[in-house]
Amino acid sequence: MSFIDLYCEEFTASLASKEAAVGGAPALIGAIGMALCAMVGNITVGRRKYIGAEAVPDAEVEALLEKGKRLRDRILTLVDEDARVFEPLAQAVAISEDDSRREKFMEYALTKVCAAPLEMMGCCGAALELLSKLLERGGAVPVSDIGVGAVCCKAALIGASMNVYINSALLVDKGAARSIETTADTLLAKHSPIADKISEEVMRRIRLEGVSDGRII
Question: How far, in Å, CA of 158 to CA of 26, rounded?
Answer without folding.
Answer: 8
